[in-house]
Amino acid sequence: MENDIEKGDVDIFRDTPVRYLGYTNEVGEAFRAQVPVRLVHLSYVVASGYVVADAVHKGWEASQKQYEDSNQKRSRMGWAVVDTLIWQGLASVAIPGFTINRICTFTAVLLKRGVSWPGPARKWVTTVVGLLSIPIIIKPIDKSVDYLMENTLRRWYHVGPVLKDLVHHNRND
Fold first, then answer.
1. Residue 84 domain-assigned?
2. Torsion angle of C-alpha atoms 138, 142, 143, 148, degrees rounded to 10
3. Total structural domains in the chain?
4. One cellular component GO annotation, for this chain's record (predicted)?
5. Shortest CA distance to 105 belongs to which of 30, 45, 155, 169?
6. What is the pLDDT of residues 17-43, one digit of tens each?
7. How many other C-beta atoms are found inside a 10 Å radius of the C-beta of residue 16?
8. Residue 119 belongs to what domain range?
9. Between the CA of residue 39 and those of 24, 27, 152, 170, what are the distances in Å?
10. Per-residue pLDDT tens over the stretch 51-61
C-alpha cells in the first residue's frame, strides 16, 4: 500500500480506514441481540452511504480519464457507477449482512437448545461469534461477487481494456 500512496494511486474507499464503513451493517447484525433494532437499521444506512459514496467516487474517477468523445465518457462514467453500486451493494451490504444475521441466528438457536446459560450470556456469545465471523467471510464473499459479476453483468456491458481500469473491485489479496 505504501507504494500505491507514493504513486498517488490510493483509493480512499479501498486503501484507507474508510473501507471499514462498508462493514458497519455486519457489526450491526452481530449486535442485533444486544441493541434496539433501530441501531441495526442505522448500521445499514451507514454501510449503504459508503456504497453510494464509493460509486460516486468511481464515476468521478472515470470522468477524469480521456475518451474519444463525450458519449463514450458518459457511458464509461455510468458503467463505473453502476458496476460499483452493484458490486458494493452485494459484497459490502446484502450478502455479508444476511450471512452474519444467519450465523448469529443459528448460534442463538444452538445455544438456546444446547446450553443452560442465562439469556444475557447466550446473547453475548452470539454477538462475539458474529463479530469473529466478519473477517472470515469477507474474502470469500468478495471473490464470489467478483466471479458472479465477471460471468454475468460485466460480460453484458463489455468490460474491456478501457473499462478494466475503472472497475477495480477484484482483489488479489
1. yes
2. 140
3. 1
4. mitochondrion
5. 30
6. 888 899 999 999 999 999 999 999 999
7. 12
8. 2-164
9. 11, 10, 35, 31
10. 999 999 999 99
- SS3 breakdown of the chain: % helix, strand, coil, rounded to 5? 75, 0, 25
User: Is the residue at 172 inside a domain?
Assistant: no
Query: Residue 169 in 3-state DSSP?
Result: coil
Give the per-residue SS3 of 14-82. CCCHHHHHHHHHHHHHHCCCCCCHHHHHHHHHHHHHHHHHHHHHHHHHHHCCCCCCHHHHHHHHHHHHH
CA dist., res. 96 & res. 26, Å (int) = 6
Calpha distance 160→155 (Å, rounded): 9
What is the C-alpha R_g of the chain? Answer: 19
Whether 170 maps to a domain, the answer reads no
Take residue 107 and report the three cell numbers written for it. Answer: 448460534
Q: Grid coordinates standing for 33?
A: 441481540
Residue 169 belongs to some domain of the structure:
no
